[in-house]
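SAMPLE LOG
Freezer: B-3
Tube label: C17
Construct: single chain, 253 aa
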Amino acid sequence: MQNHQLIQRIRDFISKEHKSGKTLITYQRNPDFPDFLRNYEIGVELDHFKEIILQEETGLELGGLNKKSFSLIFPLTDLELIEKGKITILGHEINTIKEKSVDFSLFLLIGINKNLEKDIEKLRQLNFISNGIEGFLIRTIPRRFWCRISSDAIEKKFSFEFLGNAIHHLFRQKFGNLIKSIEIIFINSYPDAIDQFREASSEIMTQIKKRWRDKIEEWKKNIDCDYDWGCEICPYQEECYNVKQVLVSREDI
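STRUCTURE (predicted):
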C-alpha cells in the first residue's frame, strides 16, 4: 500500500470520528516560537529538563498502566502528504479534562529530506521531548507508553496546543535540516477511537516492523548469527551489542 493511501486512511478515520460527534480541535504551529512561549511560564529547551514527576505531583496522566495508550512516529519523504504545522486533537483540550488520567494516543508525521535508516531510528525516539519540556514526562516500557503533566505545569496553562508547538520546536532544534515538516495528531478520552486508530494505522506499523526485521536480518548476517529467536530475548544480547559498537567505531574510523 502506497504512503498516500496509508495517510488517507488516517484522515478518513479522523473525519469519520468527528462526524460521529467526537470533539475535534485544530491548531496551526506558531512559526515564531519564542513569541509563542511568552504566553506561558513553562520552559522549553533541548535536554534541559531531565526531571521525574512523582504521582503526587501529577496533574494529568496521559495513558498509563490502566488506560489505553499508543504512540506512532512515521518519517517519510513524501512531503506533499503532510499538512505542515497542523496540530489536531481528537478529544478535549487539557483545561476541560476533569479526570486525573485519560486514554491517549500520539501520532507524528515527519517529513524528511533523506531516507537514511540511522536518521529514521533517531526520529522515533521520544525521550528527548520529555527532557526538553518543563513539567512534562514521557515514560515508555515495552508495549506501553504514557505521559505525565505536573500540577504546576497545568496551573501555568499547559495545553495540547502548547505541547504540539513544543514538539515542533524540539524536533527542529535537535534534527535541524533533516526535518522539512511535521504534523501532529493527539487522541484523548476516547478509548474506542484509539482502538480504531490502531487499526487504521496498522499498515504503517507493518511497514515499520518490516524495516526493523530486515535490519535485524542484515545485522545477523554481518556477525554470522544463525539464531532463530529475536534479538530482544537473545541470551547473547549484551555480547552482540558490544560487538556492534566495535563495528560502528571501526566504520567511523
